[in-house]
Amino acid sequence: MTTRTKAPPISLITHLPFPVPEKQILGNGVPVYLLRGGSDEIVKLDLLFLAGSFHQHKPLVTYLAANLLKAGTEERTSMGISEILDFYGAIFQVEAQKDIVSVSLLVLKKNLGHVLPLIQEIIQAPSYPQGELEILIKNQKHQHIINSRKVSYLARLHFAEQLFGSGHPYGYRLKRRDFDQVVREDLFTYHRQWIHPGNLVIIVSGQLPGNMLEKLGDHFGGQAWQAQTNPQVETAYSFPEKGSGRLFIQQKDALQSAIRVGKRIIRRNHPDYYRLVITNALLGGFFGSRLMKNIRQEKGYTYGVNSALVSLLRDGYFFVSTQVGTEVCEVALEQIYFELKRLRTEAASRNELQTLKNYLSGNFLRSFDGPFAQAERFKEMLVFGLKSNHFDQFLSELKSITPETIMETAEKHLLEESMIEVVAGKP
């Protein structure tokens, strides 16, 4: 008989029953991954272009070209497109990142056939209307000017520049003049070079109709839509030689200072990656982390402090981020370095480690809940070229990791003297 007065024992799983999507190839070579599941009659279509801002020939071009896809086509205006999407209850989203541009459509299964021709038109034949371009540039420039008065925005931009250098696409810091140098032809040039079948992967998830592949072939697999015949040669970039240091950006009227401390770090496919993920979580990766307990709960210097690992296709970085009153900026920085040192010198207690494992395990499993979430995780595998057992490796590492392993990982990857420090605020 079940004893309900005692909590059940906690055990960590070691295997994730991740469904392997079915792979197909369209007539023009576009790979398609079909991930069936879910109880609702909804389909999610993800078109993934390896066409992020890393490849743009001018600042802002990727963002503008991606976000103006649905601003008009050769046949329809922006309003006409919105009316069709609204009529069928479809959600259309575009996200332009440093390495990829993703276009997603969420629609009822019964309406998919009505919306796909429009999505084809938006992707393959955008008209980039001059008026829409001018409005978006004006709004983004205005937002940039406002953001440039915010210490958090300044710290983030300057931190990236310190990590990768001003000439690297990952580190370029947007300037006000950049908004005046993009013309409509830049968007067409970008579209011709990067938004084509040779650069595309399609993931479809949810309750799929039986003729899903045929529908995709009709709209995205025809011979009329061909890959770019002159593939672009990727530029080789160098990184700043200086491995650590401090940059202060003065904002005279600031009430708070924004702090970023971090460094470039191992990439997603490194053997130590998941150990470092767990080590980082103990430092500042969740609400019960050491940084939160120290700087927020005990000292009261900030409302929130966190640390994170960011994986990019060609690199990666680690950072600690917080915003504090200007009068406690220096002591907050001292505490960040104190916790970095403690990470490699003071072993996690039994309760501390168990809490961390419980949080990471639950959070990890939630990220696979349902076909749409699974499609997002599968997208990671495709972009970073990960093996099918990659996620099981995390569970295995989580189960076996010890306080000593965490200390060794911090010693190897998170030494205080290797950090770059950026502060934006009032001295």
Mean of pLDDT:
93
Q: How large is the radius of gyration? A: 24 Å
The side-by-side strand order for the widest beta sheet comes to: 1-2-6-3-5-4
Low-confidence stretches: none
How does the overall form come out from the CA principal axes?
Answer: globular
Beta-strand segment tally: 11
Strand-and-helix sequence, N→C? EEEHHEEHHHHEHEEHHEEHHHHHE
Helicity level? 40-55%
Structural class: alpha+beta
Contiguous helical run count: 14
Distance between the termini: 66 Å
Major pleated sheet: 6 strands, mixed
| Residues in β-strands, percent | 15-25%
Question: Any key phrases for this structure?
Answer:
427 residues; alpha+beta; six-stranded mixed beta sheet; five-stranded mixed beta sheet; 18% strand; globular
Structure write-up:
The protein is α+β, with helices and mostly antiparallel strands. It contains 14 helices and 11 strands. The strands form 2 sheets. It has a 6-stranded mixed beta sheet, sandwiched between helices. The longest helix has 18 residues.
Topology summary:
Blueprint: E1 22-25, E2 31-36, E3 42-49, H1 61-67, H2 78-87, E4 91-96, E5 101-108, H3 112-124, H4 130-147, H5 151-164, H6 184-194, E6 200-206, H7 212-220, E7 245-250, E8 256-264, H8 273-285, H9 290-298, E9 305-311, E10 316-325, H10 329-345, H11 350-366, H12 371-384, H13 390-400, H14 403-413, E11 420-425
Parallel strand pairs: 2-6, 7-11
Antiparallel strand pairs: 1-2, 3-5, 3-6, 4-5, 8-10, 8-11, 9-10
Helix pairs in contact: 1-6, 3-7, 8-14, 9-10, 10-14
